[in-house]
């Protein structure tokens, strides 16, 4: 692995993530809505992967580079399109509205620091395996095959869960009810569990050498922390806590790792 070229890539990928977030910030100010940063999250990963693919030409194995590019872009752009469709016709995300309401000083500058620049830094950090894998000279190996299998399982789990939830919400008869069917009967967060598999899978694509495995381990650990204890599961469950039927759903359904639902004697008000 050419460590000098990889170091240059780290700087270029940081610039790509920053460019996406700054462009999104400018659009958000014009529209007066910051929830579009959630769309930019997946786009920024795709941008980093594309820049890395271009810069790693002549350094990494071509097939490995192409597979990692395709896997990252497919995940990131699918997520961006899904969030864009879900947000269409809605106003500001309550999370951002609450955060900006208590912002000290200028809400715009606060949002730039606490949302856009922070998310850009996280994109760069989480994408380290994508960058490192693209500079590995060897072709696909067993760890990479396993990683892509995990990635595929995660993408499928996430996409199916998102589709099931969208179909459930589109039925007026389900208004006010808790989604507890399909994958949502096995875990309260199929989408977050899918992301978890995706990024541990992409991490394995960079584990050909112990150096890259050690260097990039921070990435899936960071993503796991975000999904379970950061802005994912923890915040969503706090928002859902007072919904009728949610306590019962929580009592019988795994919080993250899929498993068959428990039996419960609590009243199922949301059924």
TrEMBL record:
Database matches in PROSITE patterns: S5A_REDUCTASE (PS50244)
One Pfam short name: DUF1295
InterPro entries with a match to the protein in the record: UstE-like
Residues in coiled coil: none
UniProt entry keywords in alphabetical sequence: Membrane, Transmembrane, Transmembrane helix
Recorded superkingdom: Bacteria
Positions of transmembrane segments: 6-29, 36-57, 63-81, 115-136
Stated name of the protein: DUF1295 domain-containing protein
């Amino acid at each position: 692995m050419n460590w000098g070229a990889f170091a240059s890539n780290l700087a270029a990928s940081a610039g790509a993530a920053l460019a996406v977030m700054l462009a999104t910030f400018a659009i958000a100010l014009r529209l007066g809505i910051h929830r579009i940063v959630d769309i930019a999250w997946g786009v920024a990963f795709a941008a980093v992967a594309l820049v890395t693919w271009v810069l790693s030409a002549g350094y990494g194995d071509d097939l490995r580079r192409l597979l990692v590019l395709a896997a990252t872009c497919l995940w990131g752009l699918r997520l961006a399109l899904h969030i864009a469709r879900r947000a269409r016709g809605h106003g500001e995300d309550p999370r951002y509205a609450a955060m900006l309401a208590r912002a000290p000083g200028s809400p715009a500058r606060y949002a730039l620091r606490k949302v856009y620049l922070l998310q850009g830094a996280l994109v760069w950090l989480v994408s380290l395996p994508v960058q490192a894998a693209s500079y590995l000279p060897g072709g696909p190996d067993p760890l990479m095959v396993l990683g892509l299998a995990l990635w595929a399982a995660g993408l499928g789990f996430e996409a199916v869960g998102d589709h099931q939830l969208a179909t459930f919400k589109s039925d007026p008869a389900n208004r006010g009810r808790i989604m507890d069917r399909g994958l949502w009967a096995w875990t309260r967060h199929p989408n977050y569990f899918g992301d978890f598999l995706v990024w541990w899978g992409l991490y394995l694509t960079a584990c050909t050498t112990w150096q890259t495995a050690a260097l990039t381990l921070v990435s899936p650990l960071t993503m796991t922390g975000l999904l379970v204890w950061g802005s994912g599961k923890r915040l969503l469950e706090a928002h859902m806590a007072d919904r009728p039927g949610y306590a019962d759903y929580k009592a019988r359904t795994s919080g993250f790792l899929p498993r068959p639902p428990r039996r419960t004697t609590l009243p199922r008000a949301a059924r």
